[in-house]
Amino acid sequence: MSTPAPDPENNPAARQRLMRVLFVAVFMAALDTAVVGPTIPTLRAAFDVDNRAVALVTTVFVLFSLASTALMANLSDRHGRRPVFLASVAIFALGSVLVAVAPSFWMIVAARAVQGVGAGGISPAASAIVGDVFPSEQRGRALGLIGATFGMAFVFGPPLAAMMMMWAHWRWIFLINLPIAAFVLWRGAKVLPTRKSGASGAPLDFAGLVVLFVLLFCVVLGITRFGDQYTGLLLWPWSLAAAAGLLALFVRVESRAAQPIIPLSLFANRQLAITYTLTTGAGFGMGSVVFLATLATLAHGIDPRKAGFVLLPLVVASMIGAAGGGRLMNRLGPRTLMVGGFLSLALGYLGMAFPQLGLWLFLAASLPVGLGVGIVVGGSLRSIAIDEALVTSRTAAQGVINMGTAIGTLTSAAAVSALADFSGGGAAGFGKAYAVVAAIMTMMMLLTLRLRRG
User: Fold this and answer.
1) Residue 209 near residue 67 (C-beta atoms within 8 A)
2) Residue 404 — pLDDT band, cuts 50, 70, 90?
3) Measured on CA atoms in the order 162, 165, 171, 173, is the torsion positive or negative?
């Protein structure tokens, strides 16, 4: 039997080792959301499926990840972060294997569901572990690194997947997860804290979990079908209407549960309620990046195969925003930092609203966009959730942040594409869409002012 690692709460070196494990695990799960995009045309051709079917590769992963986030967060608060974190990594690795060896398209869809279950538990548990073992003066930087993985994965994922497919089979995109997961499981078993959170032993809230899954299914279906020329006009309004009804049912079920899958007390806290709204806005701001390469090709004649390179200034700025935001959080406070992040996004996307002014404005505007993404998806909102939530619901509080970010990202993809199409398409259409994005980021900035100072 291995010797227990030093307690990371009282050992800086142990905290550094722990942070490396958490960062690698969260980045692995976040990256898998982003690398699928470039594989879609290949999967469509390889298995002879249409666009609606192949979209399930992404939709199913997101749906099961969202549902799993609530379940794994609840189990983590019950039984401790360590077993749930390691189990989530193992499930994610199993899903990766199943995708890589799947003989049929529908096996890939099922395997992506398994991957989603694992991915949903990794980030909330990692953030809660940071809250448990890091002192408050170091928590901002650590959470900034955890949060930055999503922005980094969203920007780095597509070009990385495209390069891998140039050199190897698409299945290797998923097989590469195996050595990474093996490292996390090996090191995690040595460095993760073993204490339990001390939550009650009430029965698992199965009713709440089932209602939440169906609710999230309706939300994801409504968002992903928004703007669809054929089925969207029928599906998205009815799906979102059903989601509204299920939300009321979910609140009723959770109010009666001994230990709800998502504690409603989280939303009774004004700071947390604002934080979760801002989290969805942050996801919207991050997700809107996905069409910038398309705008560059339409407005400035960039070769589609090289369009990713025009986003390099955005990538660098995003890394600076994430790292700098984590360092400045304790000095400036989450509120001030988030105001600056949303203001930066608003200014950057406003610049994208004028594609007719040339490539240099596009490149200049990409800098505040990248800086803002790095800040708003960093650790500020996670830090507020840790400070405001009880220890026994700390992982659940982090899980809701993940759910809000994912829903915001999905919404942005549907909204920007629909707005561009409704505005005539082409560069001008995307310009008008990004003007709306800039307005939404401004609204998020004003909402941030309602957070407490400090």
Assistant:
1) yes
2) confident
3) negative
